[in-house]
Amino acid sequence: MALRELKVCLLGDTGVGKSSIVWRFVEDSFDPNINPTIGASFMTKTVQYQNELHKFLIWDTAGQERFRALAPMYYRGSAAAIIVYDITKEESFQTLKNWVKELRQHGPPNIVVAIAGNKCDLSDAREVPEREAKDYADSIHAIFVETSAKNAININEVFIEISRRIPVVEAAGGTSGKGFKLGRQASESRRTCC
Amino acid sequence: MNHLSQCNTWQFTVKLTVQRPSRGGAAGVSRHSWGSSEAVRRPGVPGHPGIEKGPTLSFELSAEVVLDTASACQGNDRLLKKENSFLVVQDCATSLPSLLCVSAGGDNDTVLDYTIKSTGKAFQLSESRLSFSDLAQLVFFYSVTRDVLAVCLSIPQWIYSITGKNKDPFSQLEPNTWLNSPPDQQMEEITHREPSTVMCSIQLTSSNGALCIINPLYLREHGDDWLTQRERTVKCTTQASNFRRERRLSTTRPWVGAGLHNKRAISLDQGPSAASVESYGLTRAKSADSPSPSTPGATAGVVLRRPSQNSTMSPTHRASMESLLSSPSSTPEGLYGSASELQPHGSPVLQSPHRVSWIEDGVWMPPPRPSSSLHPPFRELDSLSVSSMEEEQECQIQSPPPHHPSAHRLADKVIHRLSAVGQALGGLVCQKKRLTNRVQEMSERKGSVFAEAVREFVDMTQRGGADPDGVMGSDFLQEVRSSLTSLRETLLDFPEIQALLDSITDLSDAEIDSLVELSLHKVALKPVSPHLYSCIRTSRTNDGSFKRLHSNLCVLEKNEVEELGGSAGVGVPDCVSLERIQQRWTTMHETYSPDKKVKMLLKVCKSIYDGMSTNSSSGKIFGADDFLPCLTWVLLRSDVVTIQLDTDYMMELLDPTQLQGEGGYYLTTLYASLYYISSFRPRIAARQLSVEAQQSLNQWHRRRTLHCNQSRRSKHRRTIRRQTFQERGSSDL
């Protein structure tokens, strides 16, 4: 089974729960021995998708306006970006639209964009209607889910959907390519079953 | 006491077994039992592994007190009056020890109970993860170190004075005397010692939870020359395949890449009992009057398992080892290795005098029966030479060490830096050193292709960068980077390097790249790094970055972390850890390898993260929203100019394939933070990137992705991998 490392960049206003989403995503696999993580701003998790293993390298970014100019360093080379907004904060949804624009302009081509409306457990304080966000996401062909990092709602689904949308890697030609791939299998499958 | 309620169903046996190693055969096994007023005598406990040792233990002393139910119930408190005294309670249904009762002393004469778990052939306290192959080991272990106990067990001093000659009076002892005070007839024979001299250092290293045990007493008596006498080893040709296979089979834990090596640690295990008994001068002098010193199982000292990488040793070296071994006197006196657990039974293979036991998380399994009960039965997953503790000398197997360290230098190192030892003693570390040494040697080989390539690289690099008409700054560094990659590919073409790498199993491509890269840094990057630094400095000075850094530092340095964008309540490193961070920045600056610099950076980031959560409200997860401001806060209190130099150096020279991982993330964040400081413009909204910033980032982007897949495309690399695959295929299937 081939292992693919997928860099995923998290974008969105400060306080919308970017790191909570990642934390929730990796927590069930969290083992200090396997996942020697310094802090929640960089985390990894490997999941199986069909006949591949996808190792997500999740890069968190600082959401403050003042650090906005630094984002290209982070989303460079990303296979996917998860743009997070807070359903109880209309402003964070507007920021999201700016991120989408910037990614379209400066981001890697073919980057998979996922939109996550976080804090869906706080529907009483909702400011962004789900319909509106869904329509927007569809218009830009982005993945859309409402999530709750607090209640672990739809967290895994975001990443499953990203796995599904990642372009299939072109098959390496010739027998040498096959041997190469099989050669990896021996190590990678052992690496992940723990 | 809770166990009193169980008295109705159990018969209690109080037992202490003292085992001493000695030469000779099986004849010496003897047991002495004595009982309570009912004088219940039992011929030992059948099937108890500690007693049924047979030929390997020629002298063995077992004392048992069998109490009936009633007297046990009354007796425990009475017997355990003395602090640290203890009883082992046996479950008569299973004939296995089931409870350890220890008097913790104090006003109430508290007696603490610890359940003893017997899993197959191993014994352990249920709270502890340490297993022992018999009860005596367990008792002796807990007499020198507490582990999970509240207090150490106290073994009456006079027990050590029991020898084969005077053991007869022993059988007349009462249970009380056994547990409390030495009988008069034994007192005169006791050589008093301070309890502190019988000690065993134990440290659980924090990061990997691995245990490292060494008995300083042995080192004090014998020095630690034997630790470094690598040549004095055993014939390992016949062992090689066995070792390798065993290592595979015993790895019950799935492979997790290089991280596994870090989780391993050693126990330099010395049977504490052996040391204790020896120290009383009760056993025979270990070698002088021992007629059959090569008897396997005559264990009396530290036994370190041979390094498994010997199995991959070059034939020439193997031969040289054998010739060294042909001298019988090469075995250090008194260090007779037990037959290895890894050896098939009946295989008359010489055993190394050195043994390192590997203890791995989660695999404290009862091992195959060791031939000596004096060695804790830690399942051994891997082993290596202790010599790899030495930073530079280690693994220079090609040539003997130029000098021997003083007798205790290494011992001190071991004792004081156990956790470091635990980290450093990985098989991979040794392999890495071998690779580094081989590459070094190749680079010095006159007229060789690689030596020429390195020389050319160094010359070209030294000439470059400074020329005003030539390429400058980061473009120059990118040339250096791509030359390094070419050099690495050249190295990978050499059969001797391929052979070395093939011998290191369980490595991914990335790990192989990183190993070769590190070895290359020493020969190629080290000579040119001062020049590279001066190029970066010139470049940064000319483009005004340093000036901007300086002026913005003055503007920002008074800012607290909230003003830098951190959320309220996020902590920053205190003075002490800020001081440590400064030291790490310095260390980071001093090393020439970008990989090692990144490691140091990660330590700094860890310290910052620790500081962030120290003062925070519970449960808050800190992501980049808070980390970037905190890192900026720290940078504003550091030597930003030097850190900028180091950051550029790392950014440009780190293998691009490593930039997506954790090191890449934090390096990017460091770069970003410095960028934030140097481009800080108060009152200007930073929504739009300045033209200058945009250009800089685009250029940066191009550089970073330029050579990313170079090595993956290499034809040679695939060749190597295919070979490895075939090897794996044949060995795994």
From TrEMBL, chain A:
SMART domains per the UniProt record, alphabetical: RAB, RAN, RAS, RHO
Keywords linked to the UniProt accession: Cytoplasmic vesicle, Endosome, GTP-binding, Lipoprotein, Membrane, Nucleotide-binding, Prenylation
Protein's UniProt keywords contain Repeat: no
Superkingdom assignment: Eukaryota
InterPro entries: P-loop_NTPase, Small_GTP-bd, Small_GTPase
Family designation: Belongs to the small GTPase superfamily. Rab family.
Record lineage: Eukaryota, Metazoa, Chordata, Craniata, Vertebrata
Compartments (UniProt record): Cytoplasmic vesicle, Phagosome membrane; Early endosome
Protein name: Ras-related protein Rab-22A
Residue stretches in coiled coil: none
GO cellular component terms, A-Z: early endosome; phagocytic vesicle membrane
GO MF term set: GTP binding; GTPase activity
SUPFAM superfamilies: P-loop containing nucleoside triphosphate hydrolases (SSF52540)
PROSITE patterns: RAB (PS51419), RAS (PS51421)
Topology relative to the membrane: Lipid-anchor
Pfam family, one: Ras
Annotated organism of origin: Pleuronectes platessa (European plaice)
Automatic annotation (TrEMBL), chain B:
Keyword Nuclease: no
Stretches for region Disordered: 23-51, 279-349, 708-733
GO cellular component: cytosol; endocytic vesicle
Segments forming domain VPS9: 543-686
InterPro entries: SH2_dom_sf, VPS9, Vps9-like, VPS9_dom_sf
Comp. bias regions, Polar residues: 307-317
Cross-referenced Pfam families: RIN1, VPS9
Biased composition annotated in UniProt, kind: Basic residues: 708-721
Recorded GO MF terms: GTPase activator activity; guanyl-nucleotide exchange factor activity; small GTPase binding
Annotated keywords: GTPase activation
Example of a GO biological process term: vesicle-mediated transport
Domain of life per record: Eukaryota
Protein name: VPS9 domain-containing protein
Organism in which the protein naturally occurs: Pleuronectes platessa (European plaice)
